[in-house]
Amino acid sequence: MNSVQVSVIVPIYNAENFIEECAKSILGQTFKNLELILVDDGSKDNSLQICQRIANEDSRVKVFTKENGGTSSAKNLGIENAQGEYIAFCDADDTIDAEYIENLYQGVALYDADVCVGNVSFVSVRNDEIISRRTVKMVSGKFSMKEFMSYYPQYMPNAVIGAPWNKLYKRSIILENGFRFNTKIKNNEDTHFNYAFLAKCKTVYSSEMPYYNYINRLNVASASKGFIPNIFDIYTLTYNKALDFLKATDTYSQNIQFQNQYYIGLVIGAINGIVNGKNDLTVQEKIEQIENICNTKEVKEAIKTVRFSDPKKMLIAFLIKKRCSKFLYYLVSLKK
Predict the structure, then answer these.
(1) Mean pLDDT of 97-126
(2) CA atoms of 73 and 79, how far apart (whole Å)
(3) Residue ranges in the chain assigned as alpha helix (H)
(4) What pLDDT score was predicted for residue 176?
(5) pTM metric for this prediction
(6) Are 64 and 35 in contact (CB under 8 A)?
(7) Omega of the bond prior to 210 within 30 degrees of 0, cis?
């Protein structure tokens, strides 16, 4: 048996204000047989120096540094250097509850699960003060993948399926299939990784608590919130991967209605980004992009069965279905 049971990988970029608290929450776990892999992705602040100091204080810490290439390449470097039987990920500005890894590892010890899925607490913070906290309603226990997927419409919108940071992955599955995070896209790459990995899993252990604390720092600017020019193409690529995943897990018929609605919700978000996002597009160019979206075969197929409770979303969906690009532009541009 491998001497290290769990490798926790943390990709880091300019996280000098957060990484110490993150590392402290991992090294302070009640589960001790772990290694902490800190991957500095070319930070321009003092993140690397802080990581090196943490490593000097705890022999379980390994520090790797690379030229800036994005979080996916950093996580991939962590995978390539991990020694644990299971791999976990944590963002540098988040924390985990003290019993989090021990709780998930029960799924390994008791059920030899291929993947262990934990709950997440979404915490909004402003100036170090907690403004709000929301947790996801999850069901604890061992499931076959098909049983677990009965919760897909509940879990997918809450990052339980798509996120990498609330899971223990069986490392052998990653290595045997050559799974890595896609470095060519800047959004949804985590979901792509999980669809591929979960399709190879037979058993899942999920836990309602304790929590991975996903911290939204309201007073800190996030690069991920900016306008992404090709976001619609990424959403469509993810939609197609989702359909393949549903077929691979034999849950297509029970989840296709939700998947279509989820996709169209993202499409509406992409249209909103084109219309109201910070970009240099002219009005005519925006309308042309909306027209191209409406004429995409995936959109034309998914929109057929979509029903939104929100009247404005329903109207937007109707205009997408009828491919009324100009009307869509002017409706989405309305602030109310």
Answers:
(1) 94
(2) 10
(3) 19-27, 47-57, 71-81, 100-111, 145-148, 152-155, 171-177, 189-198, 231-248, 252-276, 283-294, 297-302, 311-321, 325-333
(4) 97
(5) 0.93
(6) no
(7) yes
Q: Compute and round to an integer the Cα radius of gyration of the chain.
A: 21
Q: Are strands 203-217 and 95-96 parallel, antiparallel or unpaired?
A: antiparallel
Contacts by 181-185 with C-beta closer than 8 Å and gap 24+? 181/71, 181/72, 181/73, 181/75, 181/76, 182/72, 183/69, 183/70, 183/72, 183/73, 183/76, 185/234, 185/237
Q: How far apart, in whole angstroms, are the C-alpha atoms of residue 30 and residue 9?
A: 18
What CA–CA distance (Å, rounded) separates 52 from 49? 5
Check residue 303 and report its DSSP letter: G
Give the tens place of pLDDT for each residue, 68-81. 999 999 999 999 99
Residue 1's pLDDT band (cuts 50, 70, 90) = very low
Alpha-carbon span 61 to 140, nearest angstrom: 31
Angstrom distance (rounded) from CA 247 to CA 50: 45
- Place 127 in a pLDDT band, splitting at 50, 70 and 90: confident
| Whole-angstrom distance, CA of residue 123 vs CA of residue 130 | 7
- Which amino acid, residue 83? Q
